[in-house]
């Protein structure tokens, strides 16, 4: 479903892709991911969206964000909002759906094919709009996790569904295991 001469853009929903890869038991090597899609077409942009905890001295995702920024990814970040739920638990909220949608709509006239790395069903109207503008849309997520990480509506709307597990040999590496690490350190990685 890829053509060598088509103009490609990647839109990566960072937390969603991380959760899907983690559910499949591997980490993503973003250098290999970028190379794979450069091979598939003319890669114009690779966007990566994530919320960051600004008040922490050190964010576990910071090394990944810095690496991506220096290695050809367009980073879109915003401060995550911290709150305490009704049970007294500390929660973090950082939805990047609007930022991703606006960027995709703006870039649509300049690309032939968008690859969305997310299984979030909220993106179904975006995919439909991009398709009406003549852009082909591939969605990368997984149905092989329990429960599946992609919404059925998004999968049906996409022109092409790419099973993340089938990319494992091309863009994956074994997860890092270390004692006492927070859950995002393996995600941040050292490239």
Helix and strand topology:
Layout: E1 7-13, H1 14-24, E2 27-28, H2 30-40, E3 42-52, H3 62-70, E4 74-79, E5 81-84, E6 90-93, H4 97-107, E7 113-117, H5 124-132, E8 136-141, H6 152-157, E9 160-163, H7 164-171, E10 172-173, H8 185-188
Parallel strand pairs: 1-3, 1-7, 3-4, 7-8, 8-9
Antiparallel strand pairs: 2-10, 5-6
Notes on the protein architecture:
The protein contains eight helices and ten strands. The strands form three sheets. It has a six-stranded parallel β-sheet with strand order 4-3-1-7-8-9, sandwiched between helices. The chain has 191 residues and is an alpha/beta fold. It has helices at 14-24, 30-40, 62-70, 97-107, 124-132, 152-157, 164-171, 185-188, and strands at residues 7-13, 27-28, 42-52, 74-79, 81-84, 90-93, 113-117, 136-141, 160-163, 172-173. 31% of the residues are buried. Residues 7-165 form the NYN domain. Pfam families: NYN. This is NYN domain-containing protein.
Short description:
By secondary structure, the chain is α/β, with parallel strands linked by helices. It contains eight helices and ten strands.
């Amino acid at each position: 479903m890829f053509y060598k001469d088509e103009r490609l853009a990647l839109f990566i929903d960072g937390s969603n892709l991380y959760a899907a890869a983690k559910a499949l038991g591997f980490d993503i090597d973003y250098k290999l991911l970028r190379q794979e899609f450069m091979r598939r077409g003319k890669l114009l942009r690779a966007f990566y969206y994530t919320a960051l905890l600004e008040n922490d001295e050190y964010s576990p995702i910071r090394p990944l964000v810095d690496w991506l920024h220096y290695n050809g990814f367009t980073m879109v970040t915003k401060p995550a909002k911290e709150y305490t739920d009704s049970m007294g638990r500390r929660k973090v909220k950082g939805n990047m759906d609007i930022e991703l949608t606006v960027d995709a709509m703006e870039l649509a006239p300049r690309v032939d094919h968008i690859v969305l790395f997310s299984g979030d069903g909220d993106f179904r109207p975006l995919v439909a709009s991009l398709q009406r503008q003549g852009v082909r849309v591939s969605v990368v997520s997984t149905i092989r996790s329990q429960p599946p990480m992609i919404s059925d509506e998004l999968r049906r709307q996409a022109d092409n569904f790419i099973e993340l597990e089938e990319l494992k040999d091309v863009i994956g590496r074994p997860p890092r295991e270390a004692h006492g690490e927070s859950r995002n350190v393996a995600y941040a990685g050292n490239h």
